[in-house]
């Protein structure tokens, strides 16, 4: 999603040229290209698929909506397995229209995980609950902190449910380092993502994530936290940014790779 | 600030006509009108000044900036005392330019409170640290949660430093009810403010606070939390909203008063 302007073949070429060893994919471009074909494309290039984004949106009350969401998440698990990644990132979903009940919404996520966790495990896929910044709590993700994500994940085996640590979402939270340690001790850090925090935020606050090094986050410090907690997996960069997307995708990937080297240990 | 389009005399008239018994004032319009004159205007109308907004911005590293901020906060205390309110709300300030050190910024706030707390107490004014929503952490307020605010406040006597509970800033936080109980047990809830959470957020995320009842927050539940914690003070409504400000101020105040009756206990 960092280089949304590139097609899958362009992305794979650019990663190979730059020596980027792995890539996190999103479902929509994978589905458009064909899941089997995308898997072959990436495999043939020697690239690892680090994660698939995203399942989730598990907060519906309406039974038909709820059943549709569960079915869609099973498809997402299937797609992850086909792509050869062991991690499906979950964006849990916001409040249903008219609801003010955050607790109830969070509980419905747990109910859904009880159904999806075993299905994912059977397919060799772990679900990674991603706490999103609290500014998304009403319309995108009622799970706003690592503590909340772990409270949910802990009800299930770590091989079924863990968490995503994304610097953009947790950087403001002085309790997050302790929660990262808690997650690491349980082997529940399923992926680690980087984006920087820049302001002013754009309208809708969705596509203003800062390029690595441009913002307020000490990225190396957060890398230190996850590594001290035992994390040895890939470090992903996930920039949603309308300005960056308007430029050349290959240049953006090259610049992002340079920034990554500069701002991580 | 809810009816920013009204002048101070218009505001006082409208409050009297509607039976609104108290008003939280902001420094800029008070200074423009004259502090003594504003105090007389409000007093003659029989209105209580519930709080003065705002002091704070205490995170500067540069010694001259820091001294200027402390001097400005002393003036804010003087103004609060002149207006006859016992509470000065503090918006603590963001990261200095180029800094990524949230911990250091929070520590500088504590240093400043050590100087300002005794000065405020001498003038019969309590400082009320307001945790702002985490989306303001970099550029406006590095204090993002009630827990962080109380960790700072607890270093000082409650008659010097407490907290502001504003539903807009804390509604997403499942640990906030316990922190409200903690604050209440120490007599540190110095004011309670209402605004509702609506999306999409506008560019800059400053002036999109929702009218009471229009958003995702169960305001009566939060009122229940502060009252269960022993809070008996005023309930303030603080809407920053460009759309609401563009309309008629007296109608907005009347509508806000109706919403207040409808959505509080």
From TrEMBL, chains A, B:
Keyword Isomerase listed: yes
Keyword annotations: Isomerase
A Pfam cross-reference name: AP_endonuc_2
Residue ranges occupied by any Xylose isomerase-like TIM barrel domain in the UniProt entry: 12-254
Alphabetical list of SUPFAM superfamilies matching this protein: Xylose isomerase-like (SSF51658)
An MF annotation (GO) of this entry: isomerase activity
UniProt keyword annotation of Isomerase present: yes
This protein's name: Sugar phosphate isomerase/epimerase family protein
């Amino acid at each position: 999603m960092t280089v949304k302007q590139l097609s899958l073949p362009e992305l794979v070429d650019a990663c190979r040229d730059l020596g980027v060893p792995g890539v996190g994919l999103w479902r929509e471009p994978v589905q458009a290209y064909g899941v089997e074909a995308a898997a072959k494309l990436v495999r043939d290039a020697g690239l690892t698929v680090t994660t698939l984004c995203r399942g989730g949106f598990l907060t519906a009350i309406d039974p038909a909506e709820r059943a549709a969401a569960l079915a869609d998440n099973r498809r997402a698990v299937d797609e992850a397995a086909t792509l050869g990644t062991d991690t499906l990132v979950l964006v849990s979903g916001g409040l249903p229209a008219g609801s003010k009940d955050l607790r109830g919404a969070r509980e419905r996520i747990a109910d859904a995980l009880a159904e999806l966790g075993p299905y994912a495990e059977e397919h060799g896929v772990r679900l990674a609950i991603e706490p999103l910044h609290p500014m998304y709590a009403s319309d995108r993700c009622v799970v706003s902190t690592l503590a909340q994500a772990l409270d949910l994940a802990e009800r299930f085996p770590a091989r079924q449910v863990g968490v995503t640590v994304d610097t953009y979402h947790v950087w403001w939270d002085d309790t997050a380092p302790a929660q990262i340690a808690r997650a690491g001790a349980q082997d529940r850090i399923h992926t680690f993502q980087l984006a920087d925090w820049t302001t002013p935020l754009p309208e809708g606050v969705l596509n203003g994530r800062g390029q690595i090094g441009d913002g307020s986050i000490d990225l190396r410090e957060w890398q230190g936290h996850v590594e001290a907690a035992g994390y040895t997996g890939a470090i992903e960069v996930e920039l949603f940014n309308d300005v960056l997307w308007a430029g050349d995708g290959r240049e953006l990937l090259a610049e992002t790779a340079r920034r990554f080297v500069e701002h991580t240990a």
